[in-house]
Design goal:
The complex is a heterodimer of chains A (298) and B (553). Chain A contains twelve helices and seven strands. Chain A has helices at residues 13-20, 39-43, 82-98, 117-136, 153-161, 178-185, 195-202, 204-209, 221-237, 245-261, 268-275, 287-293; strands at residues 27-29, 54-61, 64-71, 102-107, 141-145, 164-168, 215-217. Chain B is α/β, with parallel strands linked by helices and 553 residues long. Chain B folds into two domains: 32-212, Glutaconate Coenzyme A-transferase, CATH 3.40.1080.10; 227-537, Glutaconate Coenzyme A-transferase, CATH 3.40.1080. The chains are: A alpha/beta (298), B alpha/beta (553). The interface between A and B is medium-sized, with 18 and 15 residues. Chain A: GO terms for molecular function: acetyl-CoA carboxylase activity; carboxy-lyase activity; transferase activity.
Chain lengths: 298, 553
Amino acid sequence: MNGLQISYFEASARKRLSELVDAGSLVEFCPPEMRQTSPHLAMLDAPLAFDDGVVTGRASLSGHKVLIAAQEGRFNGGAVGEVHGAKIRGLLDRALSERPAAVLLLIDSGGVRLHEANAGLIAISEIMRAVLRVQAAGIPVFALVGGSCGAFGGMGIVTRLCTEVVMSEQGRLGLSGPEVIETVKGVEEFDSRDRALVWRITGGKLRRALGEATLLVDDLIPAFRTAAAKLIERYRAHPPVPADLDELLGAQAELTERSVRFAAARDGREIWQADFAEASRVPEMTVAEFNALLGEAA
Amino acid sequence: MNAPDISEKRWDTLARSRAARLARAGHLATGCIVSADDIVQLLEAVIEPGDRVCIEGNNQKQADFLARSLVKTDPSRLRDLHLVQSVLALPEHIDLIERGQVSRIDFSFSGPQAARLARLVESRKIAIGAIHTYLELFARYFVDLTPRVALIAAQAADREGNLYTGPNTEDTPAIVEATTFKGGIVIAQVNEIVDKLPRVDIPADWVDFVVKAPTPHYIEPLFTRDPAQITEIQVLMGMIAIKGLYAEYGIKRLNHGIGFDTAAIELLLPTYAADLGLKGKICTHWALNPHPTLIPAIEAGFVESVHSFGSEVGMERYTAARPDVFFTGADGSMRSNRAFCQAAGHYACDLFIGSTLQIDLHGNSSTATKGRIAGFGGAPNMGADARGRRHASPAWLRAGREGRGDIAMPRGQKLVVQIVETFREHMEPAFVERLDAWELAATANMELPPVMIYGEDLTHIITEEGIANLLLCRTPQEREQAIRGVAGYTPVGMARDLRMVENLRDRGIIRRPEDMGIRKSDATRDLLAARSVKDLVYASGGLYDPPRQFRNW
């Protein structure tokens, strides 16, 4: 349809999946009709979701086989509980035997589900180990971050463990979310209602500039699809190899240097000023302009 | 019989009063320029007890410094004032009443001060002459409510006192015209005094005093709607409006009320309406403020002309860069004019569409709620059939035929449409048996219940359930059932006569989305030409500069 542009940010997990993979190719694991719901939420008499807030399955993307999971941010903020976590971990384990071209994690989560905190924490640690194991087996894992909940808490860590991180400007990535920081450290530390500040610090542009996201794309499902397809091609040619000790030490040294260099920075703007000629214009730039500034081909 | 003694009769009392006031104030001014420090003295010198005073301001621009200064005057000297002004929007307007300096008010709209005003009326601290529509109040400035002193706001003045009002000209010409040509006194607050103005909006010899305000006058970004907050229900209603009404009647000249429902329609023009092949066939000429949500339609070439009541914060560069569409001066900036635009909306538009809070079974609608005297603003001027209209258009003629049948004298009718979700915020039903306006009228001793749009002017209601075409109803019973038939699960909707409603549907008086070929599942936010304020900035090519509260970057 004329001008019909499907926003990734606003779409549900199922909509994202159906538009991302080749039409009709998705075979869902543990689909809603199996009703594998959270026993913890049931005990608390809290609302349940028949997929426990995450869709997992096998599909093809540009003809390549992928295993894929999509978190539903509208159910408990995409938070990871026992069943939800087990579905993602199971998907990653399956990758070891099925050997897809890639595993795609469509992350939209505030972290661990507080109603089932212990089970959720264990699930997150299992997912982290599984992500590393899959990559060690030569299969890339891509995180796609562009939903309204972003990737925070344990899922923020999982995101950073992935081989590649694709973000939109609307996507956010961090450890503690702005509201949590404000609650613990006070509004002077982080005003979570200052939306512009929140995005300048946690949003896709800063994460891309710092190298924590590896690709920045427009907030459109086809843009995520194109990026994922490109990455699959790239890793078919060059499968991921586990980092050796020197690489890890080098990365550690870079992070140390960065933490010193920007120790006093209070706002994404100060980081733009260090690295960008037109720092004040960065927030206004389109994704294409921003990527061109980073020296990427359109 | 003795001849009347005309030698004693004086015909220049207004001029002599004016001269006396100017003489009292002369020492405070250098030329026409008065220092901000002397403004309270100036007001005490030129205003007399019992004066009709207009403090310019409407829902956008405000002469806020002059209002604050008036509150600092001596209440024993400036008293019994009669405020005649568009809005009572600032706390200072109400402070003046509480200080006992004002005994009577005639106004249009009180928005943010509606609750305070209601309390003052109930405690009989103030007499309301009448609550008007904008155009009606401007009209009375030239008949029986002419201001003696007008306190106005402009962007800039030169040293002679010429004024530049820029994009936010709004009410200024109407107020100044009435005041200055009837022996009154005009005092202007300006943001800056410059050697050369970009253009002259008000000539110097209509202005008596100019004061540079310590802070620029406040302007509210009232017409900015964040596309991110438009719901899929609003998208559905927008599709119904476009396909079921605009396309059906061929609506080219129109006015949109304020709100998310109409913002959704604006954002569907370059997508949904374009897909229906409606570009150039609908929505080409507007009486409308420069709504940011109209940017994508303008950029898509949908819109030929827009005349505006006022401006909108952040739209200045965009309107200046689109002079083929907006009315702009030789300096390049937009010129608005509320009086002319209200007249344009009343006489030259074929359709008005807007939202409301309550609709009753006769189709009367009101935004009044108990404990708040909010007034009307300009909506009733748009949302009323123009009985004085004599030029025809296809849309107007068709509405006239539908409403009057074939036997009457051929005559058209304006399409007046209410677009509402059946339940509004906090699950309050939009359809009611009896308007709260009745209760408000009783507690506030009003002669009329404050009805925004009268049922006799209303031609269509759009809800998520479909369209009710009230023009085609032939009896009061049919009209009532047509309203109930789109009122959803509200108590009014539940009390519908199912058979009668089905009969109305068969006759096309009620049309459901499926009757118009609209699939509800197609109504997604993905149809919106912009889904965020930032999308609007991109659509404008970076020309739109949204105010801070609408930015998340």
